[in-house]
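Many introductory courses stop at the sequence. We go one step further.
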Amino acid sequence: GEKLFISPRTVEGHRKSLVEKFNVRNTAGLVLKAYKDGWVDL
C-alpha cells in the first residue's frame, strides 16, 4: 500500500473484495489463482 499511497485499511478492503469476487477462502487462494491465471510470475 505504501507504494500506491493507500492505507492498510484500504488494502484490506480491496483484498476482502477480491476474495469474495474470485470465490477463494483467503489470501493464499488469491495468490494461487493469480499464479494459475498467469497474472503474476513467482
